[in-house]
Amino acid sequence: MAENPYEMALKQLKKAIDVLGYDRNIYEILSKPQRILEVSIPVKMDDGSIKVFIGYRVQHNNVLGPYKGGVRYHPGVTRDEVIALAMWMTWKCSVADLPYGGGKGGVRVDPRKLSMGELERLSRGYIRAIAPIVGPDIDIPAPDVYTNPQVMAWFMDEYSKLKGRNVPGVVTAKPVELWGSYGRIEATGYGVAVAAKFASRKYGLPFEGARVAIQGYGNVGYYSALFMHEWGAKIVAVSDSKGGIYNPDGFDPQKVKAFKERTGTVVGFPDAKKDITNEELLTLENIDILVPAAIENVITSENADKVHAKIIVEGANGPVTPEADEILFKKGVVVVPDIIANAGGVIVSYYEWVQNMQGLQWKLDEVLRMLEDKMLSALDKVYRKYYKLGSDLRTAAYAVAVERVVNAMKLRGWI
Ligand code: NAD
Predict the structure, then answer these.
(1) CATH 3.40.50.10860 in the chain, residues?
(2) Which residues are annotated as catalytic?
(3) pTM exceeding 0.85
(4) pLDDT tens across 209-229, in order?
(5) Angle between helices 79-95 and 344-358 (to 10 degrees)
(6) CB within 6 Å of ligand 1 — which residues?
């Protein structure tokens, strides 16, 4: 059975506390969220019946600023999962040097079984239920699994109606037409590409011509491919849930995307030299950089030994298991951890919030330039800690994140 995500988050916290030499009191405070709200959301279904859905908003720690974190719609949502995700957001915001704490929300529902009208009523019901504890200076939700800019538009609209004025800064990743930011769609993949380029420079591997394999060709996978290709790397393998394709001469990411949009998959793309499975993609021999950008737990104790890439950049959340981490570390494979590698999304969410507070809308190139700056300075900090600790990058990233939170708690007199 998969490990309870909260237990896993606690283990990671403990490890960071130990390498930093902090005492048990710090662990005690940070191991528990500051607030957990459970709500029931009655929704009138299209057939006239009423269904009640369970939702959560968890606020882990706000020492650095308002809580920030997505809302997930999924039938498997549990309280412990939302607590773990909220805690991870504290570290992600901290390591990226954002003025935010960590929060997360979830509703136990299979949104694919709802009509658009039902989904809208559920979304409005959820934000009404958590309205007392959210707001631009308190807690700012965003999308996560199975929520999107349309859901954010409903959240923003419903919250604004409650307040009697427009409150665009209450959520981020809104549509660009409704106070969303340019660059939010590209942000996570762009940040992954920045992290890959940075890690290859540190490794002494020329990025120009570096061979890259990407698992998952959705939002994160596609934009990672696009920018890495633009900066000179060669995208030799990509995949989606139906399988993968390989060409040692590299693919044009835009052409692969156009093909996938037409056919529903990358498999069958005419420039491919051969089809490969997702498992084969992860263990390809002639690659330098591997970007798992689909789902969690794909690199495990079963296949970590067979990974040939020199660098793994975690586009997805949690694609490398803790056991695989140890194997890869011993092999000398560099793993750029999710909390920094895929932080581009939350960084541009922060820029969206700043724009909303100022009533401005910045240009795309301005947003991407600022995103790159933020990613580079965070990566630099993590690498410095990594050299200092002699650990893996994940431990270093957690140490940077926890240290910033603890310093802030000391300064505020919380500990
Ligand atoms: P997406 O739904 O746009 O794309 C997911 C892709 O993965 C699709 O191409 C899908 O076919 C593929 N896929 C699904 N199951 C697969 C499997 N078993 N094997 C191989 N491929 C599979 O999702 P996304 O927004 O690109 O997110 C991908 C990952 O990145 C998730 O872990 C998500 O939590 C994480 N993430 C996303 C963002 C963001 O801003 N979108 C930010 C941080 C982290």
Answers:
(1) 34-167
(2) 104
(3) yes
(4) 999 999 999 999 999 999 999
(5) 80
(6) 188, 215-221, 239-241, 278, 293-295, 315-317, 342, 345
